[in-house]
Design brief:
The structure holds two protein chains of two kinds. Helices cover about 30% and strands about 25% of the residues of chain A. By secondary structure, chain A is an alpha/beta fold. Chain A is globular and about 50 Å long. The relative contact order of chain A is 0.19. By secondary structure, chain B is an alpha+beta fold. Chain B has two domains: about 190 residues, no CATH class; about 220 residues, no CATH class. Chain B has eleven helices and 15 strands. In chain B, strand 10 and strand 11 form a beta hairpin. The longest helix of chain B has about 45 residues. The two termini of chain B are about 25 Å apart. The relative contact order of chain B is 0.19. Classes of the chains: A alpha/beta, B alpha+beta. At the A-B interface, helix 2 and helix 4 of A face helix 1, helix 8 and helix 11 of B. Bound molecules: adenosine-5'-triphosphate (ATP) and magnesium ion. The site of adenosine-5'-triphosphate has 14 residues of chain A, from strand 2 and helix 1.
Chain lengths: ~250, ~425
């Protein structure tokens, strides 16, 4: 069943504005993302990477083209079902941190669980578990604004991870970080993929990060220019049941 | 999101921008404070008026007099009619008003009118003094209508109309001068009432104090039951029975089951027969109308203040929605439904409304109670029993509820904005 949990996009088109100011951000993009896979979406700034990621994550609707998630057409899903899907099956790391200021690190991390309606105790337990995993347990009570950039990004990953998702969508997860910290964050993400079989969709313009992924989708001016598969030694993820996190 | 979490989140969000929330709460505070006070004034005055009505008479009672026909100014004097004979000074109408007396025949006519259960003449007695245990004697008067009234008691019991024992309800201002240690001490005591008969001879009549009452604004003097009034009247007449028995005023009890319309019809009925009948409420109606009018105007001001505050809430929440665009976008991206976002912001509005109104009401109650106590000792000490600010839990709860409703309605626009936000646009928002 998990092997059918594929995101299948065909001929996605998306344009912004209308008339003279109309801008075609995507002009017919087709991609498939298999369970347990790590996929990099690369391209120059403004090429449409974020737009594509938002469509794949059901945050936005394409103007043209079809999108199937686990065999179901996204258009046929109710608003409620889409919300449920994003809340339970997806984790998000956006281009900015989007941490709520004046709220503790723990409260930031457990936001998806709160939205899901999980009870307070269970929520905290799960949140602390994730913070421990990310070596942030000692910062649980701190206000999010008091953290360093790398710590913030780890909190964001914790928030993406806390609901035990099948897929994590990460938009420039290392864009705001220095190389050393960036590598730490990358390691965390790939470790999650390895140990828990979480599918990674990483938007980046960093070739090095892209190279660590199983597959690279190059985008230029709203079109896929190449779709390459990297074969590297650590491809053992296929043996681990995807989405198997508790 | 669970309801509990929504409420908790709304409360903590309210305190995120403390200065802004404080200012908005302050605006609501002013409205809620005023509204609580004006309602309390209305309640206090109307409770006092009700107590006065009780002191004047039961609700099933008409005060009946002959319709005074000399009031029609410009018609010249009215011809003398031997049958309509004597004029008496009555307690009805402006001071000095005289009305034609009611004779026994009149009483029968009134009693025979459909809807009237019984009719009793009011006999006025004019005692000279009251004295207890041969102490100092004090000037003293008896309220002629006391037999049908309900006194505002501080101790003891109401008069028993059917008792053969002469009973007295003593105004509380007499308690200490007469030598009683307290109102309760006076109850059960036997006092002597001095009265001079028409021939100039002095008599004393003994009566038992059954209760002590607050001095009433509209019915002054002590209360006496039928037995005591009869004894005093006998003493006053000096054994001479006047040929024509006539009374200024009669008290007519009507059927308690009558509706308000039926009572009006009955009044009209009596009017056509030449009698003027009015209930105690009629007599106090004018006073209450004026007070209600004043309270209404004050309430209108308070509501205007609340409407101004409502715009404050709208503004505060719109700013809050603007400021938290990304946060809203994030929550929606993570699967929070538009409905829940709407609820969250509506709750924030309600929390602000609750804060403003609860603090406003609490401060109004605190200040008002203190003020009320000071006034009762000073400016309003002449009106015992008047609690100028009466805070009724139901009306305070109503004010808080009303303000929360206004706040909720003010919150709908910002909440709708928040709920409609597109998560992607919100996340791209700089
Ligand atoms: N709401 C919008 N209205 C108008 N144009 C938009 C909007 N959102 C995106 N665009 C345009 O669509 C194009 C693709 O945007 P997108 O955010 O997908 O780029 P990107 O590849 O993620 O770039 P970056 O690497 O800088 O994040 C850009 O040219 C952008 O200006
Ligand atoms: Mg982007």
């Amino acid at each position: 069943m998990d092997s059918e949990w594929v995101i299948d996009a065909q001929g996605l088109e998306k344009s912004y504005g209308s008339g003279a100011s109309r801008f075609d951000a995507l002009k017919g993009v087709s991609v498939q993302i298999a369970p347990g896979e790590t996929v990099a979406i690369i391209g120059k700034s403004g090429s449409g990477k974020s737009t594509l990621m938002h469509l794949l994550a059901l945050l936005d609707e394409p103007d043209q083209g079809t999108l199937q998630v686990a065999g179901r057409d996204a258009k046929s899903l109710s608003k409620r079902a889409v919300n449920e899907l994003r809340n339970k099956e997806f984790g998000f790391v956006f281009q900015q941190f989007f941490l709520t200021p004046n709220v503790s690190v723990l409260d930031n991390v457990i936001l998806p669980l709160k939205i899901a309606g999980m009870g307070g105790k269970e929520r905290r337990r799960r949140g602390m578990e994730v913070l421990e995993q990310l070596e942030l347990a000692d910062k649980a009570g701190n206000k999010a604004t008091t953290l360093s950039g790398g710590q913030k990004q780890r909190v964001v990953i914790g928030r993406a991870l806390v609901n035990a998702p099948r897929v994590i969508f990460a938009d420039e997860p290392t864009g705001n970080l220095d190389t050393a910290t960036g590598t730490v964050v990358e390691d965390i993400l790939f470790e999650l993929n390895r140990s828990q079989g979480i599918t990674l969709v990483i938007v980046t313009h960093d070739e090095e990060l892209a190279a660590r992924c199983d597959r690279q989708i190059y985008i230029r001016d709203g079109l896929v220019v190449s779709n390459t598969t990297q074969t590297h030694a650590t491809g053992a993820h296929a043996l681990i049941p995807a989405g198997g996190a508790a | 999101m669970r309801t509990k979490d929504l409420v908790a989140t709304a409360i903590s969000n309210t305190f995120r921008s403390k200065l802004r929330t404080t200012l908005t709460v302050l605006a609501i505070f002013v409205g809620a404070f005023t509204l609580t006070l004006t309602n309390a004034v209305g309640a206090g005055v109307s409770q006092y008026v009700d107590a006065q009505v009780g002191a004047l008479g039961s609700p099933d009672v008409f005060i009946v007099t002959q319709a005074s026909d000399e009031t029609a100014a410009g018609d010249g004097p009215v011809k003398y009619d031997p049958n309509g004979s004597a004029s008496v000074s009555s307690q009805q109408g402006p001071p000095g008003t005289t009305t034609k007396a009611l004779t026994e025949a009149d009483l029968t006519t009134i009693g025979d009118t459909a809807g009237i259960v019984s009719v009793d003449p009011i006999r006025s007695v004019l005692p000279d003094y009251i004295e207890y245990d041969s102490g100092t004697a004090y000037e003293f008067s008896i309220n002629a209508t006391s037999a049908v009234t309900t006194a505002d008691l501080t101790a003891g019991a109401q008069l028993d109309g059917s008792a053969t024992q002469a009973q007295l309800v003593l105004p509380d201002t007499y308690v200490t001068p007469l030598g009683f240690s307290s109102a309760a001490d006076a109850v059960g005591a036997s006092v002597s009432i001095g009265i001079t008969d028409i021939l100039g001879a002095a008599h004393t009549v003994d009566a038992t104090v059954v209760g002590v009452s607050l001095e009433s604004l509209l019915a002054s003097g002590a209360g006496a039951n039928d037995a005591l009034i009869a004894e005093l009247a006998d003493a006053q007449s000096g054994g001479i029975t006047t040929a024509v028995t006539s009374y200024g005023v009669a008290v007519a009890h009507f059927d308690t089951a009558l509706s308000a319309d039926a009572i009006t019809a009955l009044k009209a009925d009596l009017a056509t027969q030449g009698y003027s009948a009015s209930t105690i409420e009629d007599q106090l109606g004018a006073v209450q109308t004026v007070i209600n009018g004043i309270v209404g105007v004050l309430n209108a001001f308070a509501v205007i203040a609340l409407i101004a505050a409502a715009f404050g809430i709208i503004n505060t929440l719109l700013m809050s929605v603007q400021e938290r665009t990304r946060e809203i976008g994030l929550m929606k991206a993570m699967g929070m439904s538009g409905g829940k976002v709407y609820t969250l912001f509506s709750l924030e509005a309600i929390v602000i409304g609750f804060l403003g109104s609860a603090i406003g009401a609490a401060v109004a109650i605190g200040l008002g109670s203190a003020l009320s106590a000071v006034l009762a000792q000073g400016l309003l000490s002449g009106l015992p029993g008047l609690n100028i600010l009466l805070f009724e839990p139901a009306s305070v709860a109503f004010v808080i509820g009303l303000v929360m409703l206004i706040a909720f309605l003010s919150g709908t626009l910002p909440a709708q904005r928040a709920a409609k936000q597109n998560p992607i646009e919100s996340l791209r928002y700089e």
